[in-house]
Amino acid sequence: MDIDPSQPWGIAIDYFGRASVADSGHDVAVRIYDQTLGSPLAPDPVTDTYPAVYVTAQISESGSDGTVLTGNGLVYLQPSGTSPVAPDQTSVPAAVAAAVADFQTRATGYAALCATWLQPADGGDAANPPTDDGSGSTPPTDDGGTGTDTGTDGSAGTDPGTAGTGSTTPAADGTDGSTGTDPAADSATSTDSTQPAA
Predict the structure, then answer these.
(1) Model's pTM, two decimal places?
(2) What is the largest CA-CA distance in the chain?
(3) Would you say 1 and 21 are in contact if contact means Cβ atoms under 8 Å apart?
(4) Using alpha carbons only, how large is the chain's radius of gyration in Å?
(5) What is the pLDDT along the chain (198 residues), one digit of tens a residue?
(6) Residue 174 gets which letter from DSSP?
(7) Which of 11, 154, 28 has the alpha carbon at shortest distance from 87?
(8) Rounded to 5 degrees, what angle do the CA atoms 67, 70, 72 make?
(9) Distance of CA 179 to the CA centre of its chain
(10) Where are the chain's structural domains?
(11) Which CATH number fits domain 18-117: 3.30.70, 3.30.390, 3.10.450, 1.20.120?
(12) Which burial class, exposed, middle or buried, applies to 55 when counting CB atoms under 10 A from its CB (0-12, 13-18, 19+)?
């Protein structure tokens, strides 16, 4: 901030001791006041001493959804003996610098807090984010089980149709009653006993 050496406090203040200055990209509200019960130019009627003077600076930046981040600075000026507090041109810059430092400290702290709790855009949570293999998709998990084969005839058979290993011997009546290697379907001995759907 710039100091105006022609001003007792280094900045132009209004009747209520207020001013606004620019520093580090912020609009900083400055206020100079005391807490006396009497006139600021006379001793306090309770303590019979001149009052202390407070020089405050405040930064307030607003964001979306009602978010607000602030920074505060304070310089406390005590009277010397029986004399009132004299204007000090270094007090306002000191209060403003303290407000900027406080704002930066708060911003760093809030950024760390938000990074801890911010929900990632791709799901999961901040503590256990999902693992990305770079393929752009997550393959389904194979549980190692076996599926159920449902045929077009409505049955849910499990016969894979594997041929037997024995040798065939014609029966005396001329029919083949074997259960062997003959790949032809043998309705009398097939392990799939389901009936076709109507």
Answers:
(1) 0.59
(2) 138
(3) yes
(4) 44
(5) 788 989 999 999 999 999 999 999 999 999 999 877 666 677 877 878 888 899 999 999 999 999 999 999 999 999 887 888 999 999 999 999 999 999 999 999 999 999 999 877 665 555 555 555 555 555 555 555 554 555 445 554 455 545 444 444 444 554 554 444 454 444 444 444 445 554
(6) S
(7) 11
(8) 165
(9) 68
(10) 18-117
(11) 3.30.390
(12) buried
Backbone angles phi, psi at 107, to 5 degrees: -60, -40
Spell out where the chain has E strands: 18-23, 26-34, 53-62, 68-77
**Per the structure block, which two tokens stand in for 185?**
């379907």
> In the structure encoding, which two tokens stand for residue 178, read together?
């074997």
CA 87-88-94 angle, to 5 degrees, is: 140
CA 102 to chain centre: 22
3-class DSSP state for residue 48? coil
